[in-house]
């Protein structure tokens, strides 16, 4: 069963559900897209154990309707980064982290902290509220601005998705960042559906501007990442569980950053698996299918498949946006596979674009873009 909600439902997901006659909870936005043939009532839905959320905004439904289930417990462990770290402590006994509430954070003695570290909400989503801190001055600056940053987040996501009551201080993980779309099957085996590399502009960049995948990325990392995921499944007793996991790899040491429960890559960006590998991730999860990666990659060259997010810079008052210059923006993308325009008046982004290229420089250039160049403001 699918549970659909804001911020975005792709046409690809909608058509997948209709063509395969999958059930959708009669909840949230579902009635906008589906007839009674697909919809299932709240009472009947409670007995269904195989669930997929397009958005973590629907996590509250599971917690409220399956309060004592293993699934709810797994969601709570996954969403709370401190609980997730505790669960992983047997795999990473030397990894440093601590949890503090907002008042404690403001009272910490900056001289007694171990730098560098990352500060983030214990319950978070994307890169909201994530701060890389390298020295005392960085920490003091964050403390000064954190109240205003939290105020901006209020009302954007429910507390089950982003909650700035408690924060996690954890050692900074060096190395290349990757993301995985996968699910744990009914036996707890990890089934990987895609692997992305997540590049950054510099050490202070925590944005989600670009993720990309390629034949060589799948070939190089499929085995070691699956071995790690199988260990995580064993520690947490994960089963029938779709997820998006972010991690870093440094000199063959792989350390998870966070696991996002009950969904693959957010905003339906997991759809890129279809463009890159002809894999429909929703069908693969619902029907317990495993990609035959050797066969899939046999006919592929080493082009890069990527998605890029056109974000609204934080300093822009959206009420003064006259229009987005999409024509100018798309000149930076040599081979757009799909362009998804987003309602920037109510969302923090104006576009998500899937692209294909044979040169990493195109991806590096996207990281450098100043989004203000594509946003036309009202003159006042």
Account of the 3D structure:
This protein has 380 residues and is of the alpha+beta class. Helices cover 30% and strands 27% of the residues. The protein is built from 13 helices and 18 strands. It has helices at 11-19, 42-45, 59-65, 70-79, 81-87, 102-107, 136-153, 215-236, 272-277, 281-286, 293-298, 326-330, 360-368, and strands spanning 2-3, 24-25, 39-40, 52-53, 97-101, 117-123, 131-133, 163-171, 176-184, 190-197, 210-213, 241-250, 253-261, 304-311, 321-324, 336-341, 349-357, 375-377. The strands form six sheets. Strands 5-8-6-7 form a four-stranded antiparallel β-sheet, sandwiched between helices. Strand 16 and strand 17 form a beta hairpin. The model has no long low-confidence stretch (mean pLDDT 91).
Tags for this entry?
D-amino Acid Aminotransferase, Chain A, domain 1, alpha+beta, four-stranded antiparallel beta sheet, 13 helices, Dna Ligase, domain 1, 380 residues, 27% strand
Supply the number of structural domains.
3
Termini separation comes to: 49 Å
The amount of beta strand, in percent, is 25-35%
List segments where confidence is low: pLDDT < 50 over at least 5 consecutive residues: none
* Whole-angstrom Rg: 21 Å
What's the β-strand tally? 18
Shape: globular
CATH superfamily heading of the largest domain: ATP-grasp fold, B domain
Derived from helix and strand composition plus strand pairing, the structural class reads: alpha+beta
Strands ordered across the widest β-sheet: 5-8-6-7
* Average pLDDT rating: 91
Q: Enumerate how many helices there are, as a single number.
A: 13
């Amino acid at each position: 069963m699918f549970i659909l909600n804001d911020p975005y439902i792709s046409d690809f997901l909608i058509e997948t559900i209709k063509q395969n006659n999958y059930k959708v909870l009669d909840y949230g936005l579902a009635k906008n897209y589906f007839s009674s043939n697909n919809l299932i009532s709240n009472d009947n839905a409670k007995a269904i154990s195989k669930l997929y959320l397009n958005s973590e905004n629907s996590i509250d439904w599971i917690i409220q309707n399956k309060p004592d289930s293993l699934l709810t417990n797994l969601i709570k462990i996954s969403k709370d980064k401190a609980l997730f770290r505790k669960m992983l402590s047997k795999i990473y006994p030397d990894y440093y982290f601590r949890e503090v509430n907002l008042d404690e954070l403001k009272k910490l003695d900056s001289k007694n902290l171990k730098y560098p570290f990352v500060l983030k909400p214990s319950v978070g989503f994307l890169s909201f509220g994530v701060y890389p801190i390298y020295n005392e001055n960085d920490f003091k600056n964050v403390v000064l601005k954190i109240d205003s940053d939290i105020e901006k987040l209020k009302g954007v996501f429910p507390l089950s998705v982003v909650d700035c009551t408690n924060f996690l201080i954890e050692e900074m993980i060096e190395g290349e960042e990757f993301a995985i779309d996968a699910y744990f099957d009914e036996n707890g085996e990890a089934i990987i559906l895609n692997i992305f590399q997540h590049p950054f502009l510099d050490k202070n960049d925590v944005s989600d501007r670009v993720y990309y995948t390629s034949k060589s990325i799948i070939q190089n990392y499929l085995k070691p990442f699956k071995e790690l995921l199988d260990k995580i499944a064993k520690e947490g007793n994960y089963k029938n569980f779709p997820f998006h996991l972010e991690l870093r790899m440094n000199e063959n040491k792989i350390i998870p950053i966070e696991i996002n429960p009950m969904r693959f890559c957010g905003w339906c960006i997991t759809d890129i698996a279809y463009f890159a590998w002809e894999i429909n991730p929703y069908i693969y999860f619902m029907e317990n299918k495993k990609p035959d990666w050797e066969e899939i990659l046999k006919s592929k060259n080493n082009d890069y498949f990527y998605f890029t997010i056109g974000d609204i810079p934080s300093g822009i008052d959206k009420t003064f946006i006259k229009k987005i210059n999409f024509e100018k923006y798309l000149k930076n993308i040599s081979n757009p596979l799909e362009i998804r325009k987003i309602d920037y008046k109510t969302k923090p982004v104006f576009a998500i674009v899937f692209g294909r290229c044979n040169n990493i420089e195109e991806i590096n250039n996207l990281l450098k873009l100043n989004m203000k160049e594509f946003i036309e403001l009202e003159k006042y």
